[in-house]
Write a structure and sequence with these properties.
- By secondary structure, the chain is mostly beta strands.
- The chain has one domain: Leucine-rich repeat, LRR (right-handed beta-alpha superhelix) (Alpha-Beta Horseshoe).
- Helices cover 5% and strands 40% of the residues.
- The protein has two helices and 18 strands.
- It has helices spanning 128-133, 195-199; strands at 4-11, 14-22, 26-28, 32-33, 36-41, 70-72, 79-80, 93-97, 102-103, 116-121, 139-146, 148-149, 152-153, 163-171, 175-181, 186-192, 202-203, 206-207.
- Strands 1, 2, 4, 5, 7 and 9 form a six-stranded mixed β-sheet that branches. It has a six-stranded mixed β-sheet with strand order 3-6-8-10-11-14. Strands 12-13 form a two-stranded antiparallel sheet.
- Strand 17 and strand 18 form a beta hairpin.
- It is globular and about 60 Å long.
Length: 211
């Protein structure tokens, strides 16, 4: 993967990524910067416009908006800020670990091309359902068991380890329609498509494959 640069700041629990710079359309967030774990990616980090733009000393353009196609998150990242991928219309693949604990509102607003998710399963709570609820289009999810080997968890970020594919799931699209009952002045929301039923096939945050 091409060399990349990051604008970031230190927070209580580690490093927060503010912006990414480089010549590639694929971004691999590192596990560490300056010896500290990268634990968060800030709000609007990949949006075309950012109100408080950090200083870019890399000499490379910002990888954001239509310039972004793929993102690979390490296991250390636990939080994604609000509208992090706002209007990234060419984003098509997201790779992440299941221990992602928080995803801000509107994270995937305008990401209609996002069609491939690679999830690396760790023990404990999974964030997959929350991500799928935000994506109404058809999405393919490849589920890997992220085995630890010699202290390295397998993923495209590390390029090491042995991640075993244990499931490939296809979630159909769905859409919501606001229907007005004029006499009663009531607006109700109707959901169309089987995609919503598949997105609810979870128990205790884990996929129920039988459903």
């Amino acid at each position: 993967m091409a060399r990349q640069y990051f604008a970031y700041e230190q927070r209580d629990n580690g490093i927060c990524i503010l912006r990414c710079y480089g010549s590639s359309a694929s971004v691999a967030i590192p596990e560490e910067l300056e010896g500290l774990a990268v634990t968060e990616v800030s709000s609007y980090a990949f949006a075309e416009e950012l109100e408080d733009e950090p200083r870019n000393t890399s000499g490379f353009p910002c990888i954001c908006g239509d310039k972004l196609e793929e993102v690979y998150l390490p296991r250390t990242v636990r939080r994604l800020g609000r509208y992090i991928f706002y209007n990234c219309q060419k984003l098509r693949r997201l790779s992440f670990y299941s221990n992602l604990a928080y995803m801000g509102a509107g994270a995937f607003t305008g990401c209609e091309s996002l069609a491939f998710l690679d999830m690396y399963q760790l023990e404990g709570r999974s964030c997959l359902r929350e991500i799928l609820q935000d994506l109404k289009q058809k999405v393919r999810v490849d589920c890997y068991q992220a085995a630890e080997e010699g202290g390295v968890y397998a993923s495209p970020v590390s390029g090491r380890g042995d991640a075993k594919l244990f499931g490939r799931l296809v979630y159909p699209e769905f859409f919501e329609e606001a229907v007005e009952n004029t006499p009663a002045r009531i607006i109700s929301t109707q959901t169309h498509g089987m995609g919503i039923q598949y997105r609810n096939a979870f128990r205790n945050t884990q996929i129920v494959f039988e459903e």
